[in-house]
Amino acid sequence: MIRVLLADDENLIRVALAQMLDLEDDLSVVAQAASGDEALAVAARTEVDVAVLDLQMPGADGIAVAEQLGRTRPDVATVIVTSHGRPGHLKRALSAGVRGFLPKTASAATLAEVVRTVHAGGRHVDPELAADAIAAGDSPLTPREADVLELAADGAPVDEIARRASLSPGTVRNYLSSAATKLDAANRHDAAAIARRMGWI
Q1: Burial group, residue 166, by CB count within 10 angstroms (0-12, 13-18, 19+)
Q2: Which of 44, 68, 52 minimizes the C-alpha distance to 13?
Q3: Residue 140: per-residue pLDDT
Q4: Which of 88, 89, 183, 98 is nearest to 138 (CA)?
Q5: What pLDDT is recorded for position 46?
Q6: pLDDT at 49 (0 to 100)
Q7: Residues of the chain whose pLDDT is less than 70?
Q8: Residue 57: which of 30, 24, 81 has the closest Cα?
Q9: All residues at 6 or more sequence positions from 142 whose CB lies less than 8 Å from its CB, including other chains
């Protein structure tokens, strides 16, 4: 029996998925969580073989949870399901050791098969998401530019970004200008929107 942890902040989706997976003879949903932090806490005290994680959850997102599980529970295989299959997210997930990545539009039968595949040591990436990621290429942003752009994404003023990033306002302006140039954006707000759409921040 493959023991599954399901983590998704949308209760209706999580409960429906659990019921569908429990119909499979060889799968058992042994734990559920509504946030990334709850998923980590549950995984620490429950015998789990595969964690099926929503990409965007309160607290730690699915990729951060997968990364942490890779350190604390390397025996647990991780699968990300998402309605936001952006190229940067897929690359981050694979770098974090995620073994399965598929859209929420996938069928329950597909998800069950992916759980079996990753439990057996294999990988599964949705072909369409993989093709999009390859076509998009790598992020042109340096890690620091991406950090500063993410802090700018909610419209924070330069002084506040500088304080939060422990940088001088001049350095922040340079990073924002460089990011906007690399992304061929009109301004920092446009650059942040582009980077977010691509999953680079």
Answers
A1: exposed
A2: 52
A3: 85
A4: 88
A5: 94
A6: 97
A7: 84-85, 87, 134-137
A8: 81
A9: none
Q: At what angle do helices 143-152 and 169-182 cross, to 10 degrees?
A: 100
Kindly provide the residue ranges of all beta strands, DSSP E only, lying in the chain, ordered along the sequence. 2-7, 27-33, 50-54, 77-82, 100-103, 124-125
DSSP secondary structure letter of residue 156 = -
Q: Which domains does the chain have, with CATH numbers?
A: 2-136 (3.40.50.2300), 143-198 (1.10.10.10)
What's this model's pTM, rounded to 2 decimal places?
0.71
- What pLDDT does 92 receive? 82
**Residue 136: what pLDDT?**
66
Write out the DSSP string of 114-153: HHHHHHTT--EE-HHHHHHHHHH----S-HHHHHHHHHHT
| pLDDT (tens digit per residue) in 35-54 | 999 999 999 999 999 999 99
Residue 119 main-chain phi, psi, to 5 deg: -65, -30
Angle between helices 127-136 and 87-95 (to 10 degrees): 100
Nearest C-alpha neighbor of 17 from the set 153, 9, 167: 9
Rounded to a whole number, what is the largest CA-CA distance in the chain? 60
Residue 90 φ/ψ, nearest 5 degrees: -60, -45
Amino acid at 103: P
pLDDT at 195: 85
> Tokens 């949308």 appear where?
10
